[in-house]
Amino acid sequence: MEQETITNQVLTHHLIAFGNNDLEEIVKDYTEDSEVFTPSGPLKGLEAIRAFFEAFFKAIPTGFAFEMKQLSVKNNLAYIVWTSESPVAKIPVGTDTFFLDGDKIKYHTVADYRLTNN
């Protein structure tokens, strides 16, 4: 199977799992060698990635507004731009870049502009 097709499949799986706040399905897209680069520093391994998404799900719970503004896939690279709003946070812009190694996310960058409702 062509790498771009695999990248699309993994990204689709990831986005559906994210939308469902399904931590077990999200973690399937990564390995112990995967790294997520965040504004507060890099996270490596499944335990750190799991903790990152647990916290992220508090800002964007299942069922709240999430709009994809851009989705681009080229070979083993995927890039998305999105917005979201929930009772917890308003995110006027968020962006993720995914670099795959085969059918797993090897490197993932994520950043968003977040306004919290405290």
Automatic annotation (TrEMBL):
Q: What is this protein called?
A: SnoaL-like domain-containing protein
Q: Where is the SnoaL-like domain?
A: 16-106
One Pfam annotation reads SnoaL_2
